[in-house]
Amino acid sequence: xxxxxxxxxxxxxxxxxxxxxxxxxxxxxxxxxxxxxxxxxxxxxxxxxxxxxxxxxxxxxxxxxxxxxxxxxxxxxxxxxxxxxxxxxxxxxxxxxxxxxxxxxxxxxxxxxxxxxxxxxxxxxxxxxxxxxxxxxxxxxxxxxxxxxxxxxxxxxxxxxxxxxxxxxxxxxxxxxxxxxxxxxxxxxxxxxxxxxxxxxxxxxxxxxxxxxxxxxxxxxxxxxxxxxxxxxxxxxxxxxxxxxxxxxxxxxxxxxxxxxxxxxxxxxxxxxxxxxxxxxxxxxxxxxxxxxxxxxxxxxxxxxxxxxxxxxxxxxxxxxxxxxxxxxxxxxxxxxxxxxxxxxxxxxxxxxxxxxxxxxxxxxxxxxxxxxxxxxxxxxxxxxxxxxxxxxxxxx
Length: 397
Known about the structure:
By secondary structure, the chain is of the alpha/beta class. 27% of the residues lie in helices and 26% in strands. It comes from Alishewanella longhuensis.
Protein backbone atom coordinates (compact mmCIF):
# COMPACT_ATOMS: atom_id res chain seq x y z
CA UNK A 1 0.00 0.00 0.00
CA UNK A 2 2.82 2.38 0.87
CA UNK A 3 4.55 1.67 -2.47
CA UNK A 4 1.26 2.33 -4.25
CA UNK A 5 0.93 5.69 -2.47
CA UNK A 6 4.50 6.61 -3.46
CA UNK A 7 3.72 5.81 -7.08
CA UNK A 8 0.55 7.91 -6.92
CA UNK A 9 2.45 10.82 -5.38
CA UNK A 10 5.15 10.62 -8.07
CA UNK A 11 2.53 10.67 -10.84
CA UNK A 12 0.79 13.58 -9.15
CA UNK A 13 4.07 15.50 -8.94
CA UNK A 14 4.79 14.95 -12.63
CA UNK A 15 1.28 16.08 -13.57
CA UNK A 16 1.62 19.16 -11.37
CA UNK A 17 4.97 20.00 -12.95
CA UNK A 18 3.49 19.57 -16.43
CA UNK A 19 0.62 21.84 -15.52
CA UNK A 20 3.06 24.53 -14.36
CA UNK A 21 5.09 24.13 -17.53
CA UNK A 22 1.98 24.51 -19.69
CA UNK A 23 1.25 27.78 -17.93
CA UNK A 24 4.68 29.23 -18.72
CA UNK A 25 4.29 31.98 -21.29
CA UNK A 26 5.64 31.36 -24.77
CA UNK A 27 8.62 33.40 -25.96
CA UNK A 28 7.62 36.89 -27.12
CA UNK A 29 7.45 37.41 -30.86
CA UNK A 30 8.54 40.09 -33.29
CA UNK A 31 6.49 40.66 -36.43
CA UNK A 32 8.54 42.38 -39.10
CA UNK A 33 6.46 44.17 -41.72
CA UNK A 34 8.34 45.05 -44.88
CA UNK A 35 7.38 47.56 -47.54
CA UNK A 36 9.31 46.38 -50.62
CA UNK A 37 10.50 48.52 -53.55
CA UNK A 38 7.80 49.97 -55.80
CA UNK A 39 8.61 47.49 -58.57
CA UNK A 40 8.25 44.43 -56.34
CA UNK A 41 6.83 41.38 -58.11
CA UNK A 42 5.12 38.42 -56.47
CA UNK A 43 7.49 36.24 -58.48
CA UNK A 44 10.34 37.48 -56.29
CA UNK A 45 11.19 35.78 -53.03
CA UNK A 46 12.27 37.74 -49.97
CA UNK A 47 13.76 35.93 -46.98
CA UNK A 48 14.26 37.20 -43.47
CA UNK A 49 17.65 36.09 -42.10
CA UNK A 50 19.39 36.91 -38.87
CA UNK A 51 20.81 35.88 -35.55
CA UNK A 52 17.50 34.16 -34.70
CA UNK A 53 17.93 31.52 -37.45
CA UNK A 54 21.70 31.36 -38.00
CA UNK A 55 21.27 33.50 -41.15
CA UNK A 56 19.75 30.51 -42.97
CA UNK A 57 18.13 30.88 -46.39
CA UNK A 58 17.35 27.19 -46.77
CA UNK A 59 15.86 24.36 -44.73
CA UNK A 60 13.68 24.33 -41.64
CA UNK A 61 15.22 27.54 -40.30
CA UNK A 62 14.34 29.61 -43.39
CA UNK A 63 11.85 32.46 -43.04
CA UNK A 64 10.31 33.39 -46.41
CA UNK A 65 8.17 36.50 -46.08
CA UNK A 66 4.44 36.28 -46.74
CA UNK A 67 2.80 38.77 -49.09
CA UNK A 68 -0.42 40.52 -48.12
CA UNK A 69 -1.78 43.59 -49.94
CA UNK A 70 1.61 44.84 -51.06
CA UNK A 71 3.24 44.31 -47.66
CA UNK A 72 5.55 41.46 -46.70
CA UNK A 73 5.76 40.07 -43.20
CA UNK A 74 7.17 37.35 -40.99
CA UNK A 75 6.87 36.63 -37.28
CA UNK A 76 9.84 35.27 -35.35
CA UNK A 77 10.32 34.19 -31.72
CA UNK A 78 12.49 36.54 -29.68
CA UNK A 79 14.82 34.51 -27.49
CA UNK A 80 17.76 36.92 -27.29
CA UNK A 81 18.21 40.46 -26.03
CA UNK A 82 19.46 41.82 -29.35
CA UNK A 83 18.07 40.51 -32.63
CA UNK A 84 20.08 41.27 -35.76
CA UNK A 85 18.48 40.70 -39.14
CA UNK A 86 18.34 41.69 -42.78
CA UNK A 87 16.43 40.76 -45.95
CA UNK A 88 17.66 38.83 -48.99
CA UNK A 89 15.98 38.88 -52.39
CA UNK A 90 15.78 35.70 -54.48
CA UNK A 91 18.20 33.94 -52.08
CA UNK A 92 21.05 36.03 -53.52
CA UNK A 93 23.36 37.60 -50.92
CA UNK A 94 24.23 40.29 -53.47
CA UNK A 95 20.62 41.51 -53.33
CA UNK A 96 20.06 43.17 -49.97
CA UNK A 97 18.34 46.37 -48.77
CA UNK A 98 19.61 49.67 -50.19
CA UNK A 99 18.55 53.28 -49.76
CA UNK A 100 17.22 55.58 -52.50
CA UNK A 101 20.80 56.19 -53.67
CA UNK A 102 21.23 52.40 -54.12
CA UNK A 103 23.80 52.33 -51.33
CA UNK A 104 23.78 49.25 -49.10
CA UNK A 105 22.25 49.54 -45.65
CA UNK A 106 23.46 48.34 -42.28
CA UNK A 107 21.97 45.19 -40.78
CA UNK A 108 18.84 45.92 -38.73
CA UNK A 109 18.83 45.74 -34.95
CA UNK A 110 15.85 45.02 -32.70
CA UNK A 111 16.31 45.26 -28.93
CA UNK A 112 13.84 43.06 -27.10
CA UNK A 113 11.20 44.56 -24.83
CA UNK A 114 9.99 41.31 -23.28
CA UNK A 115 6.62 41.41 -25.00
CA UNK A 116 5.24 40.87 -28.50
CA UNK A 117 6.16 43.68 -30.89
CA UNK A 118 6.04 44.86 -34.49
CA UNK A 119 8.75 46.55 -36.52
CA UNK A 120 8.26 48.32 -39.85
CA UNK A 121 11.01 48.18 -42.48
CA UNK A 122 10.92 50.17 -45.72
CA UNK A 123 13.18 49.02 -48.56
CA UNK A 124 13.47 51.68 -51.30
CA UNK A 125 15.81 49.55 -53.46
CA UNK A 126 17.93 46.41 -53.54
CA UNK A 127 21.69 46.63 -53.93
CA UNK A 128 22.52 46.74 -57.62
CA UNK A 129 19.32 48.61 -58.54
CA UNK A 130 19.44 51.90 -60.41
CA UNK A 131 19.45 54.83 -57.93
CA UNK A 132 16.27 56.81 -57.49
CA UNK A 133 18.27 59.91 -56.64
CA UNK A 134 21.86 61.06 -56.31
CA UNK A 135 23.50 61.40 -52.92
CA UNK A 136 24.29 65.01 -52.10
CA UNK A 137 27.80 66.08 -51.03
CA UNK A 138 27.99 66.34 -47.23
CA UNK A 139 31.37 67.87 -46.47
CA UNK A 140 31.67 69.95 -43.30
CA UNK A 141 34.40 72.31 -42.17
CA UNK A 142 37.62 72.89 -44.08
CA UNK A 143 38.37 69.95 -46.38
CA UNK A 144 41.00 70.19 -49.11
CA UNK A 145 40.97 67.89 -52.14
CA UNK A 146 44.19 66.78 -53.80
CA UNK A 147 42.90 65.39 -57.05
CA UNK A 148 44.75 62.60 -58.86
CA UNK A 149 47.52 62.35 -56.29
CA UNK A 150 50.15 60.00 -57.73
CA UNK A 151 50.95 56.79 -55.86
CA UNK A 152 54.00 55.34 -57.63
CA UNK A 153 53.85 52.17 -55.54
CA UNK A 154 50.73 51.20 -57.50
CA UNK A 155 51.41 53.18 -60.69
CA UNK A 156 48.10 54.99 -60.29
CA UNK A 157 46.61 58.13 -58.81
CA UNK A 158 43.91 58.72 -56.22
CA UNK A 159 41.88 61.64 -54.88
CA UNK A 160 43.06 62.51 -51.36
CA UNK A 161 40.93 64.58 -48.96
CA UNK A 162 42.43 66.47 -46.01
CA UNK A 163 40.35 67.75 -43.10
CA UNK A 164 41.83 70.79 -41.34
CA UNK A 165 40.80 71.75 -37.77
CA UNK A 166 38.89 74.95 -37.06
CA UNK A 167 41.90 76.71 -35.56
CA UNK A 168 44.21 75.87 -38.46
CA UNK A 169 43.75 79.12 -40.40
CA UNK A 170 44.17 81.59 -37.53
CA UNK A 171 46.51 79.72 -35.18
CA UNK A 172 49.41 79.80 -37.61
CA UNK A 173 52.09 78.68 -35.14
CA UNK A 174 50.35 75.51 -34.06
CA UNK A 175 51.23 72.06 -35.40
CA UNK A 176 48.75 69.18 -35.43
CA UNK A 177 48.78 65.38 -35.14
CA UNK A 178 47.62 63.53 -38.24
CA UNK A 179 45.31 60.54 -38.60
CA UNK A 180 45.34 58.69 -41.93
CA UNK A 181 42.11 56.80 -42.57
CA UNK A 182 41.70 53.97 -45.08
CA UNK A 183 38.61 53.50 -47.28
CA UNK A 184 38.76 57.26 -47.55
CA UNK A 185 35.75 57.60 -49.85
CA UNK A 186 33.56 56.67 -46.87
CA UNK A 187 35.05 59.07 -44.34
CA UNK A 188 33.64 62.54 -45.08
CA UNK A 189 31.19 62.46 -47.95
CA UNK A 190 27.82 60.74 -48.46
CA UNK A 191 28.18 61.33 -52.20
CA UNK A 192 31.28 59.13 -52.53
CA UNK A 193 30.56 56.65 -49.73
CA UNK A 194 29.94 53.04 -50.67
CA UNK A 195 27.22 52.82 -48.04
CA UNK A 196 26.85 55.20 -45.09
CA UNK A 197 29.61 57.71 -44.38
CA UNK A 198 31.59 57.88 -41.14
CA UNK A 199 30.82 61.62 -40.74
CA UNK A 200 34.30 62.19 -39.33
CA UNK A 201 34.25 65.87 -40.36
CA UNK A 202 30.96 66.55 -38.54
CA UNK A 203 32.11 64.59 -35.49
CA UNK A 204 35.39 66.48 -35.22
CA UNK A 205 33.72 69.84 -35.78
CA UNK A 206 31.28 69.18 -32.94
CA UNK A 207 33.57 67.36 -30.51
CA UNK A 208 36.57 69.67 -30.80
CA UNK A 209 34.31 72.70 -30.36
CA UNK A 210 32.88 71.10 -27.22
CA UNK A 211 36.40 70.32 -26.00
CA UNK A 212 35.78 66.56 -25.94
CA UNK A 213 38.54 65.83 -28.45
CA UNK A 214 41.78 67.58 -29.34
CA UNK A 215 42.10 69.01 -32.83
CA UNK A 216 43.89 67.01 -35.48
CA UNK A 217 44.31 66.74 -39.24
CA UNK A 218 42.59 63.76 -40.87
CA UNK A 219 43.70 62.44 -44.27
CA UNK A 220 41.20 60.23 -46.11
CA UNK A 221 42.92 57.68 -48.37
CA UNK A 222 40.47 55.87 -50.69
CA UNK A 223 40.80 52.26 -51.71
CA UNK A 224 40.91 51.02 -55.29
CA UNK A 225 38.93 48.29 -57.02
CA UNK A 226 41.67 45.90 -55.82
CA UNK A 227 40.90 46.49 -52.14
CA UNK A 228 40.86 42.77 -51.32
CA UNK A 229 44.53 42.55 -52.35
CA UNK A 230 45.73 46.02 -51.35
CA UNK A 231 44.33 45.66 -47.83
CA UNK A 232 45.81 42.21 -47.17
CA UNK A 233 49.32 42.52 -45.69
CA UNK A 234 50.14 38.83 -46.09
CA UNK A 235 49.61 36.20 -48.78
CA UNK A 236 46.19 34.69 -48.32
CA UNK A 237 43.54 32.29 -49.61
CA UNK A 238 40.79 34.12 -51.46
CA UNK A 239 37.07 33.32 -51.40
CA UNK A 240 37.51 30.84 -54.24
CA UNK A 241 40.23 28.97 -52.38
CA UNK A 242 43.02 30.31 -54.61
CA UNK A 243 46.36 31.64 -53.41
CA UNK A 244 46.67 35.43 -53.60
CA UNK A 245 49.64 37.68 -52.98
CA UNK A 246 48.78 40.41 -50.51
CA UNK A 247 49.95 43.94 -51.32
CA UNK A 248 49.29 45.52 -47.94
CA UNK A 249 52.94 46.43 -47.51
CA UNK A 250 52.77 48.50 -50.70
CA UNK A 251 49.68 50.25 -49.37
CA UNK A 252 51.49 51.22 -46.17
CA UNK A 253 54.54 52.27 -48.19
CA UNK A 254 52.38 54.49 -50.39
CA UNK A 255 51.29 56.35 -47.26
CA UNK A 256 54.61 56.24 -45.42
CA UNK A 257 56.98 57.07 -48.30
CA UNK A 258 54.82 59.20 -50.63
CA UNK A 259 51.68 60.62 -49.02
CA UNK A 260 53.01 61.41 -45.54
CA UNK A 261 56.02 63.42 -46.78
CA UNK A 262 53.65 65.42 -48.99
CA UNK A 263 51.22 66.08 -46.12
CA UNK A 264 54.05 67.02 -43.74
CA UNK A 265 55.51 69.49 -46.27
CA UNK A 266 52.13 70.97 -47.24
CA UNK A 267 50.53 71.37 -43.81
CA UNK A 268 51.61 72.25 -40.28
CA UNK A 269 51.85 68.76 -38.91
CA UNK A 270 53.67 67.18 -36.03
CA UNK A 271 55.46 64.47 -38.04
CA UNK A 272 56.68 62.40 -35.10
CA UNK A 273 55.41 58.80 -34.78
CA UNK A 274 53.60 59.58 -31.52
CA UNK A 275 51.50 62.13 -33.42
CA UNK A 276 50.88 60.01 -36.53
CA UNK A 277 48.07 57.48 -36.65
CA UNK A 278 46.36 55.05 -39.03
CA UNK A 279 42.76 53.87 -38.79
CA UNK A 280 40.62 51.49 -40.79
CA UNK A 281 37.70 49.11 -40.61
CA UNK A 282 37.30 45.46 -41.60
CA UNK A 283 40.23 44.75 -43.93
CA UNK A 284 41.32 48.32 -43.18
CA UNK A 285 41.34 47.34 -39.52
CA UNK A 286 43.62 44.43 -40.38
CA UNK A 287 45.90 46.97 -42.05
CA UNK A 288 45.90 49.18 -38.96
CA UNK A 289 47.11 46.30 -36.78
CA UNK A 290 49.75 45.46 -39.40
CA UNK A 291 50.97 49.08 -39.33
CA UNK A 292 51.38 48.85 -35.55
CA UNK A 293 53.34 45.61 -35.91
CA UNK A 294 55.57 46.43 -38.86
CA UNK A 295 55.67 50.23 -39.02
CA UNK A 296 55.60 51.52 -35.46
CA UNK A 297 58.49 53.79 -36.46
CA UNK A 298 55.93 55.82 -38.42
CA UNK A 299 52.52 55.12 -36.86
CA UNK A 300 52.51 55.65 -33.12
CA UNK A 301 48.81 54.96 -32.76
CA UNK A 302 46.35 52.86 -34.75
CA UNK A 303 42.64 52.11 -34.64
CA UNK A 304 41.21 48.86 -35.98
CA UNK A 305 37.42 48.94 -36.15
CA UNK A 306 35.98 45.44 -36.61
CA UNK A 307 39.25 44.09 -38.04
CA UNK A 308 38.95 41.18 -40.47
CA UNK A 309 39.79 38.15 -38.30
CA UNK A 310 38.98 35.28 -40.63
CA UNK A 311 41.64 35.66 -43.36
CA UNK A 312 43.62 32.45 -43.78
CA UNK A 313 46.74 31.35 -45.64
CA UNK A 314 46.84 28.31 -47.91
CA UNK A 315 47.56 26.11 -44.88
CA UNK A 316 44.28 27.19 -43.33
CA UNK A 317 45.97 29.24 -40.60
CA UNK A 318 44.88 32.73 -39.56
CA UNK A 319 47.27 35.14 -41.28
CA UNK A 320 47.12 37.78 -38.55
CA UNK A 321 47.60 35.38 -35.66
CA UNK A 322 50.50 33.67 -37.44
CA UNK A 323 52.15 37.04 -38.14
CA UNK A 324 51.91 38.08 -34.49
CA UNK A 325 53.36 34.77 -33.30
CA UNK A 326 56.39 35.15 -35.57
CA UNK A 327 56.91 38.89 -35.26
CA UNK A 328 60.39 39.58 -33.89
CA UNK A 329 60.18 43.16 -32.66
CA UNK A 330 57.49 44.93 -30.70
CA UNK A 331 57.15 48.69 -31.08
CA UNK A 332 55.48 51.22 -28.85
CA UNK A 333 52.37 51.84 -30.95
CA UNK A 334 49.05 52.23 -29.19
CA UNK A 335 46.41 49.94 -30.64
CA UNK A 336 42.67 50.42 -30.27
CA UNK A 337 40.59 47.53 -31.62
CA UNK A 338 36.93 46.61 -31.32
CA UNK A 339 34.27 44.21 -32.56
CA UNK A 340 30.52 43.69 -32.45
CA UNK A 341 29.34 40.47 -30.87
CA UNK A 342 27.19 39.51 -33.87
CA UNK A 343 30.06 39.84 -36.37
CA UNK A 344 31.62 36.48 -35.49
CA UNK A 345 28.89 35.22 -33.17
CA UNK A 346 31.06 35.69 -30.05
CA UNK A 347 34.21 37.42 -28.83
CA UNK A 348 36.58 34.45 -29.01
CA UNK A 349 38.70 35.68 -31.93
CA UNK A 350 39.11 39.25 -30.71
CA UNK A 351 40.06 37.89 -27.27
CA UNK A 352 42.60 35.61 -28.93
CA UNK A 353 44.04 38.61 -30.76
CA UNK A 354 44.37 40.49 -27.49
CA UNK A 355 46.04 37.51 -25.79
CA UNK A 356 48.53 37.05 -28.63
CA UNK A 357 49.54 40.71 -28.57
CA UNK A 358 50.08 40.58 -24.80
CA UNK A 359 52.01 37.30 -25.05
CA UNK A 360 54.23 38.80 -27.73
CA UNK A 361 55.20 41.62 -25.40
CA UNK A 362 52.83 44.50 -26.06
CA UNK A 363 52.41 46.81 -23.10
CA UNK A 364 48.86 46.29 -21.72
CA UNK A 365 48.56 50.07 -21.32
CA UNK A 366 49.00 50.40 -25.11
CA UNK A 367 46.10 48.09 -25.94
CA UNK A 368 42.41 48.98 -25.83
CA UNK A 369 39.88 46.25 -26.64
CA UNK A 370 36.21 47.23 -26.92
CA UNK A 371 33.43 44.66 -27.19
CA UNK A 372 30.18 46.06 -28.51
CA UNK A 373 27.15 43.86 -27.81
CA UNK A 374 25.04 45.82 -30.32
CA UNK A 375 27.85 46.45 -32.81
CA UNK A 376 27.36 45.66 -36.48
CA UNK A 377 29.81 45.54 -39.38
CA UNK A 378 29.04 48.95 -40.87
CA UNK A 379 30.04 52.61 -40.93
CA UNK A 380 27.12 53.65 -38.71
CA UNK A 381 28.51 51.73 -35.75
CA UNK A 382 32.17 52.46 -36.48
CA UNK A 383 31.30 56.16 -36.50
CA UNK A 384 29.48 55.73 -33.19
CA UNK A 385 32.58 54.18 -31.58
CA UNK A 386 35.05 56.62 -33.19
CA UNK A 387 34.93 59.44 -30.58
CA UNK A 388 35.75 57.18 -27.62
CA UNK A 389 38.47 55.41 -29.64
CA UNK A 390 40.12 58.69 -30.58
CA UNK A 391 39.82 60.07 -27.06
CA UNK A 392 41.77 57.07 -25.75
CA UNK A 393 44.35 57.26 -28.54
CA UNK A 394 44.91 60.98 -28.03
CA UNK A 395 45.91 60.52 -24.41
CA UNK A 396 49.64 61.12 -24.33
CA UNK A 397 49.94 62.64 -27.82
